[in-house]
Specification:
22 helices, alpha+beta, 797 residues, globular
């Protein structure tokens, strides 16, 4: 029994006693909880996921609704189109030399025109992330009669809960989505006999062509007409007491003491180029349901929690904050932050934990990587198609996997990258006439590596280099040489080989062409950039888009550097390594422009009124490490100037998409690398104010996106520990609003695990452990080299 403050729906406060799971588990840095049912899914819903599927629940009293998504419910692809060519359009390789010549001669309008014709992709049957449908549980209760309502999500064990009193009976619901058992399980109880009653029904996005009724189970089989693949869905009820009846319209339970609902879904999709088609899913769902029924709810729950906590419990962040604010429901705490209160430090610890929860729930081995919506989507067609958007968003979601010790969760992304190589070779040959593999800004589950349908956002060939950065980071954090040799290095090497054949000579140096600095261009007049332009960079009139961009030079430089280091670590390909070093050193050097900014293009065309959301020319600062404060301070200060020119993400009339959650999260990460934690956390707070919801998620242009929420753990981790420069920097960007706290289990590159404790904003103690038996590394504390004999540092092998 635990005692704690509770509020009725009417707002009065009383001391409440309960032994029920949901109430006793509410802790300020581990639990999202609310006192009212959700009415707007994007602002108030809570999410469960197992990497394969996701369920978003509202917690209604009268009717519970769970929006079900499964990652292979994607439209498009080869099975619905016999002439599917993975987006590639022929003709590019015959025009690429001419296009490059136009660019080198600054004939950008002509180059843009040629690129629109020959360097774009065909989006016919590209597809989009869809949804399975809505699972509804009708309880036939009047929400106006409910009291003591609470619903929430316990991040410590990955379970959702709903609890309330109704006509003298306390009702409790517990929800989980298990990765090891591949099942959604709901457990419904009441503290009085024969009080559990409901009707379970399913509204499906793609109508079944077969429904099988069994004594306590419904089986739906059908075709995802948008992609030509079969699906199988099973939902089953196991109850104690009362009766169960099954009809075409659902499953009805009357007068039960308790009931468990088991739900599983699968399709015949297989991530296997070029067919992407595997076995019929009926046997898989039958096996899953059989095992789940045999185990029962409690065993499923214990398996689920053990699997989840094996990942989640590796890192723990504690921040000392305001104990009064910590007692409030999550929506009220978020609202206080929006009003300007930063005293609730443990709310940031809750964000950190939610971020890791989302990463674990959306991305596990053997699944597809996270979409823009994670594994949660309630639309027939997800916003932006639910892309694997590869010009920032996809990569951003995995920023915390290394530092917060979740390498397994990046595995699905790595597997997806490996699957790009074969179709990427065809794209390289089709558009460039060269070997190697290439990919662009957008990706799907069908091996799409072609450019997009519009050059503004579609020409982004250095995506293969950015993906390779994540492959390399996985090795740096894990030290797994077998992984590096057998998986990461071959993919990275072949990406580098593509670029070795596609260097473009310009004024004695190499540039990348054609390309477009992510999603915007430069207003031109008389062949020169317009000073102080106030025209949105996405408006085509008088715009030059194919001005060579530094984003690509930086990303290819990064790829070359990482391939050099990987081949040296493996002691292979010495000749190739030497060639890459020679070519890398001839890339166009980074330039500081007339404002003191880091130039975005090889022309000094940056505009102080340009507040565009993308900052791809700052890739060299983060996630790369080509620019650092200690080794290239002049470039670091130029990057700082670029950030100041771009602004902190507040949207304006001319720049309606200047901010948004993923862009502001990136800005926070960039300011971390500049060791300005107060600026980084201020931008994060502004993001929540402008784009945040009560359930601690956030949006881009009004649509919930999971990139920033999933990246938060990595961003916060870098406020406390950085290791990108070959040494450990402890508390490099500690925000003033976090005066006291501790973190356990952070991981640094080269195999170090670090525990840190601080008070009054200063280090109290750090314990550094090495799984490799390495010597004590070079250490900085807040950017200052550690003095010999500092007793705040302990080292353990």
């Amino acid at each position: 029994m635990k005692l704690f403050l509770r509020r009725f729906l009417t707002g009065c406060i009383l001391l409440y006693s309960s032994s029920l799971y949901a109430f006793s588990s509410i802790t300020p840095d581990q639990t999202l909880w609310f006192q009212y049912p959700a009415t707007n899914w994007s602002k108030q819903t809570l999410h469960l996921g197992n990497g394969f599927m996701g369920a978003s629940f509202y917690g209604g009293v009268e009717k519970e609704r769970l929006d079900i998504a499964e990652k292979t419910f994607w439209a498009g692809g080869p099975n619905v189109s016999p002439n599917y060519h993975f987006g590639n359009i022929t003709g590019g390789k015959d025009q690429i030399a001419l296009i490059r010549e136009k660019i080198k001669n600054h004939e950008f309008k002509a180059a843009d025109s040629l690129c629109r014709k020959y360097m774009t992709g065909n989006f016919s049957n590209y597809g989009y992330f869809s949804t399975v449908g809505n699972l509804e549980i009708d309880f036939n209760q009047d929400s106006k009669k409910a009291t003591d309502y609470v619903r929430g999500l316990d991040l410590s064990n990955s379970t959702g809960f709903v609890q309330y009193k109704y006509e003298g009976v306390t009702y409790n619901r517990e929800y989980l989505c298990s990765y090891p058992d591949k099942i959604l399980a709901l457990h419904l109880t009441a503290n009085a006999k024969n009080k559990v009653a409901f009707k379970l029904s399913h509204i499906l996005t793609y109508k079944p062509d077969k429904i099988v009724k069994q004594k306590d189970e419904l089986i739906y089989s059908g075709l995802i007409t948008a992609n030509g693949l079969r699906y199988s869905i099973r939902m089953k009820v196991v109850q104690s007491g009362g009766t169960v009846t099954v009809g075409d319209d659902g499953i009805r339970v009357i007068n039960a003491n308790e009931a468990s609902i088991y739900y599983t879904v699968d399709t015949e999709y297989k991530y296997d180029y070029p067919s992407f088609k595997g076995e019929h899913p009926d046997k898989n769902t039958e096996s899953v349901m059989k095992v789940a029924t045999f185990k029962g709810y409690e065993k499923l729950k214990s398996n689920h929690i053990a699997d989840y906590q094996n990942l989640y419990n590796r890192v723990k962040l504690t921040l000392k904050g305001d104990s009064v604010l910590e007692k409030k429901p999550t929506n009220e705490r978020v609202e206080e932050l929006k009003k300007g209160s930063t005293d609730d430090a443990s709310l940031k610890a809750l964000w950190f934990n939610l971020s890791r929860y989302l990463v674990i729930s959306a991305s596990r081995p053997g699944t597809l990587p996270s979409t823009l919506q994670g594994v949660w989507n309630t639309f027939e067609s997800a916003p932006w198609g639910g892309n694997f958007q590869s010009n920032i968003n996809l990569e951003e979601m995995y920023w915390g996997c290394g530092s917060t010790n979740l390498p397994e969760c990046q595995e699905s992304y790595i597997e997806w990258i490996e699957g790009l190589v074969k179709p990427g070779r065809i794209t390289a040959e089709t558009y460039y006439g060269t070997k190697g593999w290439v990919s662009n800004a957008t990706g799907n589950i069908w091996g799409f590596t072609a450019p997009g349908s519009d050059i503004l956002w579609g020409i982004y060939p250095s995506a293969n280099a950015w993906h390779s950065r994540n492959l390399w980071e996985q090795y740096l954090f894990t030290g797994d040489k077998a992984y590096l040799k057998n998986r990461a290095y071959p993919v990275m090497k072949e990406a580098a080989e593509f670029w070795l054949e596609n260097m473009v000579e310009y004024k004695g140096r190499y540039i990348i062409a054609p390309t477009v600095s992510a999603e915007h261009g430069v207003e031109m007049k008389g062949g020169k950039p317009v000073d102080y332009s106030t025209v949105n960079g996405e408006v085509y009139e008088n715009k030059a888009l194919t001005i060579p961009a530094y984003q690509d030079i930086e990303m290819v430089y990064d790829l070359y550097t990482n391939v050099i280091e990987a081949s040296a670590a493996l002691n292979i390909d010495a000749d190739l390594r030497g060639r890459i070093m020679e070519i890398r050193d001839k890339l166009m050097p980074l330039k500081i422009g007339k404002y003191g900014q880091l130039q975005e293009w090889i022309l000094d065309a940056d505009n102080p009124r340009d507040h565009h959301r993308h900052m791809a020319h700052l890739y060299a600062l983060y996630p790369g490490n080509m620019i650092t404060l200690d080794k290239t301070d002049d470039l670091a200060q130029a990057a700082k100037k670029s950030l100041e020119m771009r602004g902190e993400g507040v949207q304006g009339t001319r720049w309606p998409h200047a901010g948004g959650n993923w862009s502001m999260a990136w800005k926070s990460a960039l300011w971390n690398r500049l060791k300005d934690g107060d600026r980084a956390i201020r931008i994060f707070n502004t993001m929540i104010k402008d784009c945040g919801y009560e359930n601690m998620l956030s949006n881009q242009s009004g649509n919930v996106m999971m990139d920033a929420p999933m990246a938060t753990c990595g961003i916060f981790a870098e406020m406390l520990l950085q290791s990108q420069n070959g040494y450990l920097d402890i508390l490099p960007a500690l925000p003033t609003e976090w005066p006291e706290g501790k973190v356990e289990g952070l991981v640094a590159r080269n195999g170090y695990t670090v525990n840190i404790e601080w008070k009054y904003g200063n280090l109290v103690k750090a314990v550094i452990k090495s799984s490799k038996g390495a010597l004590l590394p070079r250490i900085q504390i807040k950017g200052v080299d550690l003095k010999k004999g500092d007793r705040r540092i302990a080292f353990e092998n």
